[in-house]
Amino acid sequence: MSSVMVKRTRIETEKGDITCERVDAIVNAANHTLLGGGGVDGAIHRAAGPELLAACKLLGGCDTGDAKITKGYGLPAKHVIHTVGPVYSESGPNAARRLASCHRRSLELALENDLKSVSFPAISCGVYGYPVDEAAHVAANTVVEFVTEHKGLELVRFVLFDDRAFQAFSEQLERAAGVGEFKP
């Protein structure tokens, strides 16, 4: 685990399974329909149970870069914030802006719902093809900037599935927070 403090918010990276997170909200790397899919999205839907799918059907989908919230149902997390990341090969120069928007909108929804702790996966890094190092850079900088400008969040955690993503997100988080020594 890697951890930094930014203002009054602890930001962490950890290798693990986001469906096991005991936080106020986990973020789902969803597709436009919000009706489940593969990867993180499918795992969250399976772990939450059929109530999550029923709730998502009422939301009317979600645009890339936006986010919507439901209860967590069968998950340890109280809520799920669903966000749709960019497909890297289709987003061109807008990829970073859209990925940053996913993180920002998710954190805004957390604050709007008085949530204190949020866990993110590596949004868009699976089937959507976003390079892990670039995604980690965008995610870490967006989160650090957000918690610098907004009060209320106590914990933001990046929960990564493999060693490569964990390393990339840990390094980028330390860079964004201005701590640690880095290789060029």
| CATH architecture annotation | 3-Layer(aba) Sandwich
The string of secondary-structure elements, in order, is: EEEHHEEHHEHEH
| Binned strand content | 15-25%
Number of helices: 6
| CATH H-level superfamily | Leucine Aminopeptidase, subunit E, domain 1
The secondary-structure class comes to: alpha/beta
Model description:
It is a single chain. With 184 residues, this protein is α/β, with parallel strands linked by helices. The chain has a single domain, classed as Leucine Aminopeptidase, subunit E, domain 1, CATH 3.40.220. The protein has 6 helices and 7 strands, in the order E-E-E-H-H-E-E-H-H-E-H-E-H. The chain has a 7-stranded mixed beta sheet with strand order 1-2-7-6-3-5-4, with helices on both faces. Helix 4 crosses helix 5 and helix 5 runs parallel beside helix 6. The mean pLDDT is 95.
Keywords:
184 residues; seven-stranded mixed beta sheet; single chain; Leucine Aminopeptidase, subunit E, domain 1; 21% strand; alpha/beta
Which secondary structure elements does this structure contain, and how are they paired or packed?
Blueprint: E1 2-6, E2 9-15, E3 25-30, H1 39-48, H2 50-57, E4 67-71, E5 79-84, H3 88-91, H4 95-112, E6 117-120, H5 132-149, E7 155-160, H6 163-177
Parallel strand pairs: 2-7, 3-5, 3-6, 6-7
Antiparallel strand pairs: 1-2, 4-5
Helix pairs in contact: 4-5, 5-6
